[in-house]
DNA sequence: CTGAAAGCGCTTACAG
DNA sequence: CTGAAAGCGCTTACAG
C-alpha cells in the first residue's frame, strides 16, 4: 500500500486516513541531498512531521514521547545520519561535551596510558578529550586552569597525580561548579569524586617480597614529598617489612624525584654506605633504572650485589638489564574508570563503585634475589 | 570632572555634552556583579553604548572601526574580563576552536612531546587540543576520523607519522574541506601542508659516524615498511656510508617494528651471523635498546663487540648501559611548528617556511666506538 | 503526549 | 564607520 503511494512520482502523498511513510521520506531526503549534507534537527522534524521540540525530546531520551513517535523519529535519524551538533547543544545547555585532562606527571608513558584509558571510557559517549598540562609551581597555575575550564565550558575534568592532590585547584573547581574526578594513590575526599590506585597495597607487596627473600638492610628512594603516591608506596613498603619484623632504617632512605637521574644520584649515595643495603625499593621504575645505572658505575650488579624493586611496570622495567622486579599499576584502567565515573556523576546517578577494585600487583623479574650476605 | 560625576551615588550621569566614561562604567559593572560573572558581548555593547555588531567587529579585528571606539571597547573588555564564548562563536562561524591531533605512533614519549609542542604553538591563540588515537588497520578507521572531524567541526587537524603518510585520510580531509598539517620524515605533498623532520639527514649522520669509526660490516634494523621514516633513515644511512665507499650488505639488514622486542629479536639474529657485523644502526632508540639486550643475552657488550646507533634521542637512550649514540629529532619543535603553520593556514596567510629548518643531529655516547676487528 | 516562541552568545548580509 | 534583524542548531519554560 505504502509502496504504491511512493511510486507516484517518487513522492509520498498524504490523505486524511493515510500517514506519510517517514522511512521513505527520510530515504528520499538522503537521496536528494547526497551523502555529504549534514542534517539538522529541523530536517528531522520536517521529515517526521513533528516539531523540533519533539525531536529534541527523543534526542534527550525524555519519557514524554509516544512510543510510535519515538521509533519513527529514531528511524529517520538513522537513515539520514543525523547527529546533534555538540556546539549548538552545548550553547543551549551552557556546557560543552569536552572532558579536560589536567596533568603534571612527568612520565610520558603514564600520560599516554592515562589518555588512552580515558578515551576508552569516553568511547561512544559523544565526548572528546582535551589535554591540559600544567605547572603547580607557576604563578598563573590556578588562573590558567580556571580559564581553561570556563572558556571551554568543560563538561568535566579529570585530574591526575600530582595535580590531583592539589586542594587549591579542587576548591576552584567546586567554586565554579565544574564536575571532576581525582585520580590518586589514596582516597583524598569522598568516594564520588575519586579513583584510587591503592599504591599502599602495591608498596606492601614490594616490602613482603624483599623481606621474604631474607633482606635485612633495606633502602628506599622516594619521590618528591609533594607526590602523595611516594608516601603511600613507602607506607605500604614499611607495612610489608613490618609483617616480617623489619623496619626501614632512616640512613638507608633518600629523597628522589621520580626521575632516572635522581635514581642514579641517590642510588650512588646509598651504595657508598658501609655497610650498604642489600636491597633498595625505588618508588618508581624510572628511579629503579637509575639505580641500576648507579650499580654499574660502582662496578656492581643486581641482584647479587643489590636487589632492586621498582613501581609502575612501564616499558623501562623490561628495557634495562636485569629486568626490574616491580609493582604493576593499571594506569589505563584507572583512566577508563575515571571517565566512566565522570559521565555517571553528571547523570546524577550514584556510581556503583566496587571498592578496592584497583589493586596493584607484584611482578617478579631478575633484579631481585636473596641477599649476598 | 569625571571623578566628580562618578561620586554621585556611584553612578555615571550623561548629559548632552558629556560622554559617559566607559572605563568607569566597566568598573562599576564588575563591582556590581562580582568576580565570577562571565560577561557576554551584550554586556560589552551596553557598557560601551554601541551595538554588539561593533563589539563583534573589534573582536574580529575588522578595520572598519573608529580608533577611539576600538580602544574604548578594548578597555572595557579588559576591565570586565570579557572573552568571547568559543562555542557561540563557533556556531556562528560553523567551526570550532579545536585542533585535532590524530596519531598512531606507538611511542609514548613521541606522543607526549608532540602534544607538548602543539600546545606550545597554540598558546594564547584561543585554541585547544583534542587528541585522537587511531588504527590504520581498522575497518572503521576512515569513518572514525571523519566523524571526529565533522562532529566537532574541527578548526584543523595535525597528523603525525605514520597516519600522516596515509593518503586515504588526507583525501578525506580535503574532501570535507578540513585544514590539516602533516608531520612526516619527508615532504609528501606541497609544502603548505607539511612539517618535515628530514630524517634522511639524520640517517646520513649515523652512516658517516660509523664509517668514520672504521666499520665495514655494518647492519641495519628497520621499522615496519609502512613507516616512511624507517625508509628515510635507511636511505640517509646508506648515503652516509656511500660517502666513505661503503654499502649496506643485505644479509646484515633485518625488518623490525620500532619496538624493544623487535630490536631484541632481530638483533639476536644478526649477532648469530658469522662473521657478524661490527656495527648496527637501529632505526629508533627503542630497537637499539633491544639490540643492547640481545648483546647481553649473547654475552657480548657494546661498543667493543658491536657498535650501536639509534634514532630519536628519547629518555631510553640514556637509561640503558652503555648509553646510546643516537640521532636527535626535535619532536617538540615539530609539533610547535605544525601548530603555528596550521593557524597561519587558516588565516590565508602564506606561511614563511624556513626550509630545512628541522635538522636532526648526531649525539655521540658510549654505545659506539671503533670496530674490534 | 506535543508545539510555538524565546533564548544560548555569537556573526553575517544588508542598509545607511 | 555603525546598527537592526536574522540566523547558526540546539534547549527550555510555558501552554495546551
UniProtKB/TrEMBL annotation, chains A, B:
UniProt keyword DNA-binding, yes or no: yes
Biased composition (Basic and acidic residues): 348-367
Pfam families: LacI, Peripla_BP_3
Keywords: DNA-binding, Transcription, Transcription regulation
Domain of life of the native organism: Bacteria
Disordered: region residues: 348-373
Example GO molecular function: DNA-binding transcription factor activity
HTH lacI-type domain mapped to chain residues: 39-93
Protein name: LacI family transcriptional regulator
Species for this entry: Aquisalinus flavus
Lineage: Bacteria, Pseudomonadati, Pseudomonadota, Alphaproteobacteria, Parvularculales
